[in-house]
């Protein structure tokens, strides 16, 4: 009980700005025959479910493959299940726990759909989802199609927002 009392403020901070859902995380289908090496490189965030730990605009990630088979992206990404390499694990920050980072779909050259979920005692969960692109924009039809993929995997993207790419000259790297 004492552990729950200590954890409650942390959990409330976690879900602020996110949309919690009852029950455990969903288990969406991931990219078959995922190739981590092809996924490496620069990805721009096109749309996302709101995430308290991810603020700002012009958000991009640059994944690089390390010698030990992990990937570096401002934070470290590792293969969670060797039999299913599209199921990655990621540490978003020092405050948030290790989380899933699953590639639901990618063609490696245009776009990728990523899902993450934090399960809280199997009572409720918080979904995170991203539409990524190799360029700063995607056609509206591609965004609509991406949202349909999330929905078909029982991921509620009704709160998904488009990311701003109105970038100034001053850039910050984490």
Descriptive notes:
With 174 residues, this protein is α+β, with helices and mostly antiparallel strands. It has one domain (18-162): Lipocalin, CATH 2.40.128. It contains three helices and ten strands; from the N terminus they run αβαββββββββαβ. The protein has helices spanning 2-15, 36-39, 140-152, and strands at 20-22, 41-48, 60-65, 71-73, 75-79, 87-91, 98-106, 111-120, 124-133, 161-162. Strands 2-3-4-5-6-7-8-9 form an eight-stranded antiparallel β-barrel. The longest helix is centred in the first third of the chain and has 14 residues, at 2-15. The N and C termini lie far apart (37 Å). The model is unreliable at 3-17, 75-80 and 169-174 (pLDDT under 50).
SS-based structural class? alpha+beta
CATH T-level fold name: Lipocalin
Task: Calculate the terminal CA-CA distance, rounded to whole Å.
Answer: 37 Å
Mean of pLDDT: 78
The helix/strand series, from N terminus to C terminus, equals: HEHEEEEEEEEHE
Largest sheet features: 8 strands, antiparallel, barrel
Q: What is the CATH domain class?
A: Mainly Beta
Q: Could you say how many structural domains there are in total? A: 1
Pick out the low-confidence regions.
Answer: 3-17, 75-80, 169-174
The helical percent reads: 10-25%
- Number of helical regions: 3
Family: Belongs to the calycin superfamily. Lipocalin family.
GO cellular component, one term: extracellular region
InterPro entries: Calycin, Lipocalin_ApoD, Lipocalin_CS, Lipocln_cytosolic_FA-bd_dom
Protein name: Apolipoprotein D
